[in-house]
Specification:
alpha+beta, single chain, Penicillin V Acylase, Chain A, eight-stranded antiparallel sheet
């Protein structure tokens, strides 16, 4: 319980400080030539080196939802085994995939969401926002199950000081939805685009894409003004006007363009590698979000880790700010009926691996 209160205080501090430090996420979706789906995203926090962990959850594992005052909310048992990546402690999974290939992820959503209040009469059916990913991966096999599950539970904030969040859920068929809780009510969006960042709301982000209807991949054709011939300085001139800052609306536009202009590859593994390359563009250098005179946190990057999930292959890949080597957990090699609950640090050793060539 002591660790629980420590964890929620850290999460709250992260959210409360987001105005002065980066607290961001960027998500994309890629497909292979034969229709396999790869979900990929980043998670950022420039304030400190958050503890990041993996968790392997067997079928039958029992979770208990935490509340701000230490009481227990909804108790739920894992119908499906899953692997997740979390922050601060194993309950707080922010991205994961279960044995059915259902993907679930949490993204910060400050200032625009509003949960319902935690009520005594709903305590047994209430799940904290930071544990909803665990709840969904434990109990749902597809997007329809997710919608049905949200009709049976109440979602509340683990700490009233903390930012609200929103979520994306996807299944191997390619169906994907975004959940936002507005004025205490669940609002679902079909996410055919496959991109998600942070605030404002998802429907606003889609509308904002209309401001960039002029963008095209490649090079702009020659033009002229009066008798003066005009030509591009180089490749990529069709991208003039693509926003390059790290605000959520700008990242949404940039992610949508890079995702939709990416070539379709013939295997999931190649597509996973492509997703990591695309998301390189969203790594946020430490210090860029600090005001002049402020001292940046002594960490390598504001992007703590990047993750990609192959939904059909049931594999989850990740790399971190401490180690750029891509690592993989293959769910198909895990017997979720027998495996023990397991959790561990994403980086047991926080050190970049450098290979020296000798001649």
């Amino acid at each position: 319980m002591k660790r629980f209160f420590y964890a929620i205080s850290v999460i709250a501090a992260i959210a409360m400080a987001s105005a002065g430090s980066t607290s961001a996420c960027t998500g994309i979706t890629l497909r292979t030539a034969d229709g396999n789906v790869v979900m990929a995203r980043t998670i950022e926090w420039s304030g400190s080196d958050m503890y990041s962990c993996y968790v392997v959850v067997p079928r039958g594992h029992v979770w208990k939802s935490m509340t701000p005052d230490g009481r227990l909310g909804c108790e739920f048992k894992a119908r499906y085994g899953y692997v997740g990546l979390g922050v601060e402690q194993s309950e707080f999974v922010t991205e994961g995939i279960n044995e059915c290939g259902l993907s679930a992820g949490l993204f910060y959503f400050p200032d625009y969401g509003e949960y319902e209040s935690l009520k005594e009469e709903n305590l047994g059916s209430s799940v904290s926002d930071l544990q909803l990913v665990s709840y969904i991966l434990s109990t749902c096999a597809n997007v329809d199950d997710v919608r049905a599950a949200l009709e049976q539970i109440h979602v509340f904030g683990i700490d009233p000081r903390a930012s609200t969040v929103h979520w994306r859920f996807a299944e191997p068929s390619g169906r994907q939805i975004v959940l936002e809780i507005i004025d205490g009510k669940c609002v679902f969006y079909d996410n055919e685009l496959g991109v998600l960042t942070n605030s404002p709301s998802f429907d606003w982000q889609l509308t904002n894409l209309n401001n960039y209807v002029n963008l095209i991949p490649g090079k702009v054709a020659k033009g002229s003004i009066e008798k003066m011939d005009l030509k591009s300085f180089g490749g990529g001139s069709g991208l003039l006007g693509l926003p390059g800052d790290v605000t959520p609306p700008s990242r949404f536009v940039r992610a949508a363009f890079y995702q939709c202009s990416a070539p379709v590859l013939d295997s999931a593994e190649k597509t996973v590698a492509q997703a990591f390359h695309i998301l390189n563009n969203f790594d946020i250098p430490i210090g860029s979000q600090y005001a002049p005179g402020e001292t940046p946190a002594p960490i390598p990057s504001a992007t703590h880790w990047t993750v990609a999930s192959d939904l059909s292959g049931k594999k989850i890949y990740y790399r971190t700010m401490h180690n750029c080597q891509i690592r993989c957990i293959d769910l198909s090699k895990i017997d979720f009926a027998k495996v023990k609950f397991t959790t561990g640090a994403l980086d047991p050793i926080k050190e970049e691996v450098i290979h020296y060539l000798t001649f």
